[in-house]
Design a protein that fits this description.
alpha+beta, eight-stranded mixed β-sheet, four-stranded antiparallel β-sheet, 12 helices
């Protein structure tokens, strides 16, 4: 086992996920196994097959400045912050490793037990304490190499965990994989001594490597490729939002001028079709607004740009474009 080093002071989720993908696709896993750790700033990490809009409480993440980044592994959405330690075992692909989460979580649970914590694998891919989830795990493989990675809630802001992943849309139908919400807890209160997350990481390293750590430091050539992957993939709207599966959203709200019922069909992150219904008293033809929104990215800024200069009073009643965008998107 080789410990990957060089990202200890990097907390940008787009960079750390790029490092993980670069390593699983590039490093020699035929002769070596690797272990990568990373700690991210507040961010929601979306599963590969998920609908980002469905998983994210958009108003909350914008208010809290929480990043939203899609990963290449499956599973549900998770919340990361500086109190969450992420680990990734990068190995060669073998049939007995795929979906064998115990193989990769066992070294972690052993390390936790060495700290006096009665942690155990629960269900298929969670680690729990007293029945509460402290770790979710997922895998990726390209049939040559693979990784099995997971979270460790050490001292996360659990209020943000719930708030950031709380979807407010009145009704949404999607072909994406929905996250299963679980009771969660932090590890820190269960420890017998007061330690930092950095010290916690070191204790896990000591347990897994038994004091003999072989290290691989990311070099200049690695960083060139990692930075390219960060820029061209993990920081793009197309990957993080546009890759969401097609889905339908129904937004309904009663305003002073009547009820508006918006039916929105989104494909590849853009509005393919939208229709308005309701008992409002606008005298303009709402099909003009519908046409203005077709082909527009389903995000706040794009909706605002598309409605710039439109007098919404004509079509609906006493409402401005900003209020209308809030209705459509939050």
């Amino acid at each position: 086992m080789i410990l990957i080093r060089g990202n200890e002071d990097i907390h940008d989720a787009t960079v750390n996920l790029a490092i993980e993908e670069y390593c699983v696709r590039t490093l020699d896993t035929i002769d070596n196994d690797y272990l990568l750790f990373y700690i991210n700033n507040p961010s929601i990490i979306i599963g590969k097959h998920q609908n980002t809009i469905e998983e994210v409480n958009i108003g909350y993440v914008q208010e809290k400045n929480i990043a939203v980044v899609r990963r290449i592994s499956g599973g549900g959405a998770v919340y990361h912050d500086r109190g969450n330690l992420n680990y990734s075992f990068i190995t060669k692909h073998t049939n007995d490793s795929i979906n064998n989460f115990r193989k990769f979580t066992q070294p972690v649970t052993n390390a936790l037990r060495g700290m006096g914590i009665e942690a155990e694998l629960s269900g298929r891919n969670d680690i729990t304490i007293d029945g509460k989830k402290i770790s979710g795990n997922a895998q990726f493989t390209n049939t040559k190499s693979m990784f099995s990675h997971g979270t460790l809630l050490f001292d996360s802001h659990l209020g943000d965990v719930a708030g950031a992943l709380n979807v407010k849309a009145e009704k949404i139908e999607s072909k994406g994989i929905k996250s299963v919400r679980s009771r969660v807890t932090n590890i820190k209160p269960y420890l017998k001594e007061e330690i930092t997350i950095t010290e916690f990481r070191q204790k896990i390293i000591d347990s897994i490597f038994h004091g003999k750590v072989n290290e691989y430091f990311l070099n200049e050539e690695d960083w060139v490729k990692i930075n390219e992957l960060t820029k061209n993939k993990y920081r793009t709207w197309e990957w993080n939002w546009g890759r969401s599966p097609e889905f339908n959203v129904q937004k309904v709200k009663r305003f002073s001028f009547g009820q508006v019922d918006a039916r929105i069909f989104v494909k590849e992150g853009k509005i393919e079709n939208i229709k308005f219904f309701g008992d409002f008293f606008g005298y303009g033809d709402t099909s003009e607004i519908e046409e203005s929104l077709k082909g527009v990215r389903y995000d706040r800024q794009s909706l605002s740009d598309a409605l710039t200069g439109k007098d919404m009073n004509i079509y609906f009643g006493d409402i401005n474009a900003e209020e209308f965008v809030n209705f459509l998107y939050y």
